[in-house]
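Worked Example 4.2. Consider the chain below.
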Amino acid sequence: MEKLYYTYQMIHKLAQSIAGQVTESGFNPDVIVAIGTGGFIPARILRTYLGKPILAVGIAYYDLNDKPMDYPRKVQWIEEAEKKLAGKRILLVDEVDDSRVTLEYCTKELLAYHPAALAVAVLHDKHKEKRGAFPPGVSKVFVGEALGDVWIVYPWDAHDIDEQDRNAALERGAET
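Applying the procedure from the previous section yields the following structure tokens:
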């Protein structure tokens, strides 16, 4: 499978673009909910632009070999979720909408707390058949960039960040 490398600067610009989309849409979240592990960094960047607090959830869907399991499961959830989420406008953040299974699971869980509104933001949406679906109640989906079905190599997964940056530059025809 083709690999596509991203730098932290590229991720920051995608998150900035999403923040602009959120603002322009009129959706004004009360809270950002980051799906760990991939949603942590984009959520933190969005906080810079939107100025909203971040809560985190941990969902396991992939095994140690990056193979999807039969279904997602909670690893970590929001303490006192009813108090923190009921009646709030929530922006759920993850790095990629690949199969949509994790996003479907999280949106269904969050909707159980009766938020005022629920929107989703992802850095990347892979244009491919999705196994999951957004339930009614998800009001908006914000996407930084749409891609084909490629393997996205995020900078937070890099063992050598300089090599990561070189690979990203080479893919895009730039020199480091």
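The CA atoms of residues 60 and 73 lie 5 Å apart. The chain has one domain: 3-171. Compare this with Example 4.1 before moving on.
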